[in-house]
Amino acid sequence: MSATLETDEHKALRSAVAALGKRHGRDFDREALWAEAAKLGYLGVNLPEQYGGGGGGISELSIVLEELGAAGCPLLMMVVSPAICGTVIARFGTDAQKREWLPALADGSRTMAFGITEPDAGSNSHRITTTARKDGTDWLLTGRKVFISGVDIADATLIVGRTEDARTGRLKPCLFIVPRDAEGFSRRQIDMELQAAEKQFELTLDDVRLPADALVGDEDAGLLQLFAGLNPERIMTAAFAIGMGRYALAQAITYARDRTVWNAPIGAHQAVAHPLAQAHIDLELARLMMQKAAALYDAGDDVGAGEAANMAKYAAGEACVKAVDQAVHTLGGNGLTREFGLARLITAARVARIAPVSREMILNYVSHQTLGLPKSY
Ligand SMILES: Cc1cc2nc3c(=O)[nH]c(=O)nc-3n(C[C@H](O)[C@H](O)[C@H](O)COP(=O)(O)OP(=O)(O)OC[C@H]3O[C@@H](n4cnc5c(N)ncnc54)[C@H](O)[C@@H]3O)c2cc1C
Question: Which part of the chain is the Acyl-CoA dehydrogenase/oxidase C-terminal domain (predicted)?
Fold first, then answer.
């Protein structure tokens, strides 16, 4: 990595996190790693110093997640808790919300999940119907969410809902902090093929009564707040994917150097070596775009970061799927054994292609926003 792209601090952070990841490895205990990463200041590296964070940005947080992933122990909740929820609260929360949540998110003692996806809305988040209505000074929140990660291990979930605009009657998005045990807030675990410590849930909100201060920031700034969280989410998903791709590729390279069935290691055959080299190039390119997106975001350029973050997520998702596929293939039959642990990544790699926004929706975004092509939907 060139000195112009990463500072000495970034490089030091990378190697320190890599060492932590190496100590935990592929059979990691999620809670133990979360606690240790928090204690070392890695989980809150992007949060303001004033609230116990490291005062850095998404550039630093994405380094942490990438390196943990590259060591085989990614912490999925980093995409959600410090990156989306931490960012939204730090930028738009009230002083009381900042004091209550930011130090706890930074030191890892509390975690927050994030719920936007709905069964009947999916990729079309304009169609969400989870609705908040006023009851005195309280809010009553009703709706359904699906595929929400880590709700069982999170102290609260940041739920994207809508309120009715008193003037126009139109529904506008707004964000609510819903405690895990709030009355009327129930969850059902979805039976996923993924082998991960973080589970996905279908949520039902049935007239969940929330105090006025559960609403994040300002009722009229919901859309702005939501968008503020989405760029960090995409950048962090890119970091997640690049880490996983690097992990798979490293296993394949080690194997290809040793495994000999003719008169040279299989890695000497170009049919084995070239796809691995291509996978490496694709991951490096995706990381370059991720760094660009993170740099733009940290510099306060939300619009510029939007395009770069989408492209980074797309490139990283595709690079990860290809790297995992080639890694599994390189190990022959061993690619499918539990012992080598690569086959389970075939499913895991697909997550970065579909969430938080699918490959096709990014291609739509680039077609319309960047290329100015007309919309079909
Ligand atoms: C492991 C996992 C964890 C997740 N965690 C969370 C979470 O913590 N919080 C949360 O809110 N959500 C989460 N999600 C949900 C995720 O963000 C959604 O799955 C994703 O946004 C896609 O929505 P959908 O599944 O409803 O697919 P759909 O919207 O039904 O799309 C299905 C297919 O149609 C394609 N498609 C749809 N519309 C178009 C179009 N206009 N043009 C071209 N193609 C189109 C899509 O690309 C996709 O391939 C998670 C999902 C997974 C798998």
Answer: 222-364
Label each residue of 350-375 as H, E or C: HHHHHCCCCHHHHHHHHHHHHCCCCC
348 and 300 within one domain: yes
How far is 89 from 99, CA to CA, in rounded Å?
Answer: 10
Residue ranges making up the domain that contains 173: 113-222
Domain assignment of residue 317, yes or no: yes
Domain final residue pick, 42, 76, 111: 111
Q: Is the CB of 147 under 6 A from ligand 1?
A: yes
Which atom of ligand 1 is closest in space to residue 160's alpha carbon?
11
Domain match, 132 and 104 both: no
* Same-domain check for residues 143 and 234: no
CB 81 within 8 A of CB 154: yes
pTM greater than the 0.85 cutoff:
yes
Which CATH number do you get for residue 89?
A: 1.10.540.10
CATH value at residue 321: 1.20.140.10
| Number of domains composing the chain | 3
Q: For ligand 1, atom 7, name the residue with the nearest CA.
A: 148
* Sequential pLDDT tens for the chain (377 residues): 444 689 999 999 999 999 999 999 999 999 999 999 999 999 999 999 999 999 999 999 999 999 999 999 999 999 999 999 999 999 999 999 999 999 999 999 999 999 999 999 999 988 999 999 999 999 999 999 999 999 999 999 999 999 977 777 778 889 999 999 999 999 999 999 999 989 999 999 999 999 999 999 888 888 888 888 899 999 999 999 999 999 999 999 999 999 999 999 999 999 999 999 999 999 999 999 999 999 999 999 998 999 999 999 999 999 999 999 999 999 999 999 999 999 999 999 999 999 999 999 999 999 999 999 999 88
Written as six digits, the tokens of 241 are: 């994917």
Could you give the C-alpha distances from 169 to 50, 116, 174, 294, 307, in angstroms and in order? 39, 22, 15, 37, 32
Q: Which atom of ligand 1 is nearest to the CA of 200?
A: 3
Task: Assess whether the C-beta atom of 157 lies below 6 angstroms from ligand 1.
Answer: no
| Backbone φ and ψ of 208, nearest 5° | -70, 120
**Which of 222, 244, 271 is where one domain is finished?**
222
Q: Given the CA of residue 145, which atom of ligand 1 is nearest to it?
A: 11
